[in-house]
Write a structure and sequence with these properties.
The chain is of the alpha+beta class and 624 residues long. It folds into five domains: 84 residues; 137 residues, Beta-Lactamase, CATH 3.30.450; 93 residues, 2-Layer Sandwich (Beta-Lactamase); 107 residues, Beta-Lactamase (2-Layer Sandwich), CATH 3.30.450.20; 162 residues, Reverse transcriptase/Diguanylate cyclase domain (Alpha-Beta Plaits), CATH 3.30.70.270. The chain is built from 16 helices and 21 strands. Strands 1, 2, 3, 4, 5 and 6 form a six-stranded antiparallel sheet that branches. It has a five-stranded antiparallel sheet with strand order 8-7-11-10-9. Strands 13-12-16-15-14 form a five-stranded antiparallel sheet, with helices on both faces. Strand 14 and strand 15 form a beta hairpin. The protein is flat and about 125 Å long. Keywords: Membrane, Nucleotidyltransferase, Transferase, Transmembrane, Transmembrane helix. GO terms for molecular function: diguanylate cyclase activity. This is Sensor domain-containing diguanylate cyclase.
Length: 624
């Protein structure tokens, strides 16, 4: 286990380097903050400080406005869909009922369904107020949206349309439109300024300066001058040229100065205006300088405290590592003693040098084994030649992935001449924050385990009385034949059962019947050697599969079985005349399923029994 000591030295060096690098980084950060320019202009700092809060507030306000309008738009869309789905020839009353249903859910003051010839049906039974022809023409053109704000001459208030076309499907032509009318005053109930201060202002307006919405402390006044707004005292906004829409800046001076933001909402061509008084932000260069100096002092103090804490932590960590290494050394010694009494051999594999070293302590007087490469174990015959590629692939895989790998190979252990099944496992040694540089390799003798697995596999595929294949073993053998590079094109299936076998069991007893079955199995092995597949289905039923046979070979074997099997009764002195009936079938294993071949052979078998002949083939049945 002495080879693991290299981990300790390397890890300690790495920890010291990380501590030094962290200390230099903290000192560099402190130096940067200590050399900051403390003469920043107040106006620049004010702009930088107010831009992000103003933009965050703008996003919140726009999201609220958009959510509200989308909800109202959904009522119009659903009403349009419902009207489009009405059967042809529906009455105006049916259309009005649909409008009433969605009108009651919405915030609309009016709602109309309009045909292409501008015949309108209102949920309230009132005439169509087309103050905005643009909205209706856009809907007839297949568009959905919001109209410009207009002043209704009939109702003497500001309002706008929410419009949607009516059509059965997107591919069908427009047959009309559904209009919903919203009053501008309703937006005031939905919009809330998530304000930067109580003196902040918020407004939604059109490019011509017409207000869509204004917060209470912003006095609405349209002018033809360069100014959009004249606000109350203390909130004077300078000129806002048209090409600055969507810009951020400041206006005014001293206590009347404001920082403002004007951005498009993404809803039609409406704009959102916000401002915040400069008095709500940092007011003087002195405050700015004080804040930056205070920040630098805090960073310096934090760096010193951090270095002290790191030194204390490093010392405690070194003590913990030393105790852990002492414990590991003791554990390694105990592990080496335990491994001497197991079938496991332990190695350390260097992922960079591609060599592995035994962890076993040398015996007294013996020289410690040196490092070796996995490829040498293949070259000197330690690993069986047929397993050399897979063995080397394990070591390549752990170098690439650093993930545990495992494989079973035939390995010749020291001092032995025969190969034994050995399970090889490679596990990378993980160190937090570092790439693995070594792996633990274990060689475990699993020969007995493989032998037991083979025995269990044989028992699952063999008949315990006769040691012939059972039905499951036959299927596996057929699949193996079909998986060969050149599978047989034909195969003969002989199905047989013994005549008068029940009398043997009833008169002489089942032990004598078992003796007869074993003798039948031995006779079949003599008459149909490999590659013939011999199967006992159960009871007195047997199957012989002849891969590659033709009709002549299959029928000749059936004749030999009929000639020689009855002699077993005389040989065993049973006193009961034992005969056999055989059904013969020739098939293509790749084209005809095994179950179907069973059925064909079974038909021939029962034909032989009915005719009291020894064997019958499916070929002879077809000729009849």
């Amino acid at each position: 286990m002495k080879h693991l000591s290299v981990f300790r030295r390397w890890a300690r060096t790495a920890r010291q380097l990380r501590l030094a690098l962290l200390g230099l980084t903290l000192l560099f950060v402190t130096l940067v903050f200590s050399t900051l320019d403390f003469t920043l202009q107040l106006n620049r700092y004010t702009i930088a400080s107010s831009q992000d809060p103003l933009q965050n507030t703008a996003r919140s306000s726009i999201a609220t406005l958009d959510s509200y309008l989308e909800q109202q738009m959904s009522y119009v869309q659903r009403a349009a869909t419902a009207i489009a789905s009405l059967p042809e020839g529906s009455s105006e009353e049916e259309v009005r009922q649909l409008l009433d249903e969605y009108f009651q859910r919405s915030d609309f003051v009016q709602m109309w369904a309009v045909s292409l010839d501008k015949q309108a049906i209102s949920s309230q039974g009132i005439s169509l107020d087309l103050s905005s022809e643009e909205a209706l023409e856009s809907a007839f053109g297949g568009q959905s949206g919001y109209s410009a704000v207009y002043t209704s001459l009939t109702y003497h208030d500001d309002r706008f349309y929410v419009y949607v076309p009516v059509r059965v499907s997107p591919e069908q032509p427009v047959t009309g439109a559904v209009l919903g009318v919203l009053k501008v005053d309703q937006l005031a109930q939905e919009l809330t300024l998530y304000g930067l201060s109580d003196e902040s202002c918020l407004a939604v307006f059109q490019p011509d300066g017409k207000l869509v919405y204004a917060c209470p402390n912003l006095r609405r006044q349209l002018t033809n001058s360069d100014n959009f707004w004249d606000t109350e005292v203390g909130h004077i906004l300078g000129s806002l040229p048209e090409n600055e829409a969507g810009q951020f800046g400041t206006a005014g001076s001293d206590k009347d100065a404001v920082a403002w933001l004007c951005v498009p909402t993404g809803i039609r061509d409406w704009y959102l205006y916000q401002d915040v008084p400069q008095s709500a932000l940092l007011a003087t260069n002195a405050q700015e300088t004080k804040l930056v100096m205070l920040m630098a002092l805090k960073m310096l103090a934090a760096s010193v405290i951090m270095l002290v804490l790191l030194a204390i932590y490093h010392r405690q960590r070194e003590d913990q590592v030393q105790r852990a290494e002492d414990s590991l050394r003791t554990s390694n010694q105990l592990l080496a003693m335990a491994l001497q009494h197991t079938a496991i051999t332990l190695f350390v594999y260097d992922l960079n040098a591609y060599t592995m070293t035994s962890c076993a302590e040398p015996r007294p007087g013996e020289k410690a084994a040196g490092a070796t490469e996995p490829a040498l174990l293949v070259q000197n015959g330690t690993v069986a030649p047929q397993h050399s590629a897979g063995f080397l692939a394990l070591f390549h895989q752990i170098r690439q992935t650093r993930e545990p790998v495992q494989g079973d190979f035939l390995v010749r252990w020291p001092g032995q001449s025969e190969y034994r099944w050995t399970r090889v496992t490679l596990t990378a040694v993980l160190t937090p924050g570092q790439d693995p540089s070594h792996a633990i390799v274990t060689f475990e003798d699993i020969t007995e385990e493989r032998r037991r697995e083979d025995e269990l596999r044989q028992r699952a595929n063999r008949d315990p009385l006769t040691n012939l294949f059972n039905r499951r073993g036959l299927r596996i053998r057929v699949n193996e034949l079909l998986a060969q590079p050149d599978p047989p094109k034909t195969a003969a299936l002989l199905m047989m059962d013994l005549d008068h076998f029940k009398e043997v069991n009833d008169i002489l007893g089942h032990p004598i019947g078992d003796v007869l079955l074993r003798e039948v199995a031995r006779l079949l092995e003599q008459l149909a050697p490999a590659p013939g597949v011999l199967v006992r289905l159960g009871g007195d039923e047997f199957i012989v599969l002849l891969p590659g046979a033709d009709w002549a070979q299959a029928e000749a074997l059936a004749g030999r079985i009929c000639d020689q099997l009855p002699g077993l009764a005389s040989k065993l002195e049973l006193g009961v005349p034992v005969g056999v009936s055989v059904g013969v079938h020739l098939f293509d294993p790749a084209a005809e399923p095994l179950n179907q071949a069973y059925q064909q052979a079974d038909v021939a078998l029962y034909a032989a029994k009915r005719n009291r002949g020894c064997w019958v083939s499916t070929r002879s049945l077809r000729e009849l």
